[in-house]
Amino acid sequence: MIIVTTENIPGYRVTNVLGSTFGVVVRARGIGGDIMASFKGLVGGEVKQYTQMIEDGRRQALDRMVESAHTMGGNAVVMMRFDSGDIGNSMSEIVAYGTVVTIEPIA
């Protein structure tokens, strides 16, 4: 599956637009991470536990988006984006979304 953030894929032609797809993940921050984040807030620096949580969440959202695109019959996703937000004080939502297409190489 080719995934791009652009509208076109160099060397390929879009043969069919199948529609929108997305993958969503909601991750809860643990109390240990919140305590560490509070300490980091006092002294500054990266909160590695949160960085890892967001990276893992993006990968999982991307995997779910690809699974959905396969189910729709696509072989590529164009205009892929990530979005995220907070739910309450302890959860983060991560969404990967884009347009499912079928493509073929330009001869």
UniProtKB/TrEMBL annotation:
It holds the Pfam family YbjQ_1. Gene3D superfamilies: Hypothetical protein apc22750. Chain B. InterPro entries: UPF0145_dom_sf, UPF0145_YbjQ-like. This is UPF0145 protein ACFSGI_15275. It comes from the Bacteria. Belongs to the UPF0145 family. SUPFAM superfamilies: YbjQ-like. HAMAP family: UPF0145.
